[in-house]
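Example record used in the benchmark description.
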Amino acid sequence: MIIFYRIPGDSPNMRKVSVMLAETGLPHTVQQVERQNDGQLAEEFHRINPNATVPAIIDQQTGVTLFESGAILHYLAEKTGQYLPTSIQARAEVMKWLMFEVANVGPTMLEVYHYLLTDTAELPDAVLQRYKSRLANLGHILDRQLSEREYLCGEYSIADIALYPWLLIWEDMTDVNLATYPNLHTWVNKISERPAVRAALKM
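Model output (C-alpha cells):
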C-alpha cells in the first residue's frame, strides 16, 4: 500500500502524484498532513520529509519513503513498469523532459505565483515581466517539441504527467491564452480527456 501525504486543497505538485496513482492503479491511501498554528506542517511529518513540503509517499511494501514530485513519479514508474520506457534511448528522452519540468517550468511558475499572489511588497514591473517572459519562452519550447509528436516523448510518460498540472494554471499565471501555443493546447486537451486524469483531478 502507498501512503500519499498531502495537504487540503490542491497544487500542481500534488496533482502529479494523484494522476500517477490513478494512471497506475496502485493501491493507496491519502494522509492529510496537518498545519500547526504557525502555518508549518506538523513536526512529525519532518521525519518523512525534512524539507516539510508535500507531496510525499511511503511505500509500505518496500519501506521506501520519498519526497519531491519528480522522484516520486520516477519511483512509481520503476515500481510498476509503466510510463517509463525500457530502452536506454527512450528512457533518457523521458528523463530529460522530466528534468526540464522540475528544473525550469515548476520553479518559474512558483516564482510568478509568489509575486502575483503572495508578495505584498512593491515589486518593479521588470521583475515580474522577467519571469513571465521566461514562461513564454518555455511555452514556445514545449510547443515546438509537440509539433511532430502526440506526447512530449512520443508515448505518454511521466514527463507528460509532471508537466500537465502546471499547464492547467498557465493562463492564470502568464496572462497568455494557451491557444497561442496550438500544439501545447492540443496536448493539454488530450491529456484532460484521459479517464485516470479526470478521476485524479476530482480527488
